[in-house]
Amino acid sequence: MNRREFLAKLVRYGLSAGALSALPVERLFAQEFYPQLTIPIIDAHAHVPGDPYLIHTDDMPGYTFEAIRNAKLCATTMAVIGDDKTAVGADSTYMQAKAGIARVRLWETEKRVKIVRRPSDIPSQPNITGPIPVILAIEGGDAIGTDLGRLDEFYGLGVRMITLVHGRAGEGGSGDNPIGNDMRRHSSADGNDEGLTEFGYQVVRRMNRLGMIVDVAHASTQTLLDVASCTRAPIVDSHTSMLPPEATVREHGRQRLYSDAEAIVDTGGVVCTYPYRDDAYGRLTLEDWVEEIKLFRSHFGMRYIGFGSDSGGGVPRIPEWTGIGSVKDLQHAMRSGGLGTLEISGFMGLNFLRVFARCHAIAQVLTYLKA
Ligand SMILES: [Zn+2]
Questions:
Q1: Continuous segment of H or E residues that includes residue 163
Q2: Nearest to 226 by CA among 177, 267, 170, 286
């Protein structure tokens, strides 16, 4: 394959001319010929190591700084919790998110992490000794309150992705929030699911304008469909797993219907999957996960599926998954399952990078046009 053919291949993966200019293409090209170069991995959803606000901190083995470094990621998300209403003080979700952001920013001053501010800050190969590139995110748009100005503030602090809904019921959170509804509280057939609120529409619009990635993980089906219908940039579900294609209703839980995925795909976005063990649907091993990926590929192609570990996917998780280091085992399973280097690269990070690059580029256009 010559350079031109390789570039054509990349373009088919959705890396538009604008996004390509942000990518170190030569290094990706070299990987075809030097397989010892690492497949670029970007974890689309993970928590902040040692986050005191996490529900299941004890359930995150293998998500220390050292483990992240050893897994040789090109970048990892660090999502601060934005909807825990048990923290002290008024407006606690906002204060809590700011405290989480401050922790990560402190690590940046200590050169432990480097906060990714634009797509080109993500290297094509992992930096083994330098600071870990971190995509700063907020899981739970409750932290925005009803103040759009906070989006500008969060962006200024380095936040590049927000999970609109998180749904921490029983932790002082109602699940639903001023933006939209939570998928565990509303089945896909719930006639009372009013979806995205008026304020939620404004949030999506402002995030598009800023170049923040809109994450519909945890969002109810109607909320997802509303976001997909109004967004001007691709969206992601940063951590989920797929129901079988024949399923037409999601009763509860965190899995996505194919019709949900289609709405995300139609925006040019990515459905990122995680190591959740799903006894009901026989998603028990890495091989099962790979079969799910291949089934998704047969419906939508490989451009629209990605990887978000959720720092282990909560519990239960696939037993072979012992930490972020297991991403290498998933790669091997994908290889054994017949997936090629570009397909694995797309899943492991390039598809998510494409979305990030598109969001960044669209924001520039919207700002230029004052749209
Ligand atoms: Zn989550």
A1: strand 159-163
A2: 267
Residue-number span of the structural domain to which 226 is assigned? 3-369
Q: How far is the CA of 238 from the centre of ligand 1 (A)?
A: 8
Distance (angstroms) between ligand 1 centre and the Cα of 56 equals: 11
Ligand 1 centroid – CA 217 distance (Å): 7
Q: In angstroms, what is the span from residue 45 Cα to ligand 1's centroid?
A: 8
Question: What is the 371 CA–ligand 1 centroid distance (Å)?
Answer: 32
Within the chain, strands assigned E span 42-43, 75-81, 113-115, 132-139, 159-163, 213-215, 235-242, 255-256, 270-273, 305-307
The percentage of residues in the chain with a pLDDT greater than 70, rounded to a whole number, is 84
Which burial class, exposed, middle or buried, applies to 27 when counting CB atoms under 10 A from its CB (0-12, 13-18, 19+)?
A: middle
Whole-number Å distance, alpha carbon 355 to ligand 1 midpoint, is 19
Can you tell me the mean pLDDT for 245-256?
93
User: Cβ of 285: how many Cβ atoms within 10 Å?
Assistant: 15
Q: What is the pLDDT of residues 74-105, one digit of tens each?
A: 999 999 999 877 766 668 889 989 999 999 99
Number of domains making up the chain: 1
Q: Report the CATH number that the domain containing residue 139 is assigned in CATH.
A: 3.20.20.140
For residue 277, how far is its CA from the centre of ligand 1 (angstroms)? 15
Q: Distances from the Cα of 179 to the Cαs of 54, 77, 226, 250, in angstroms?
A: 22, 22, 11, 21
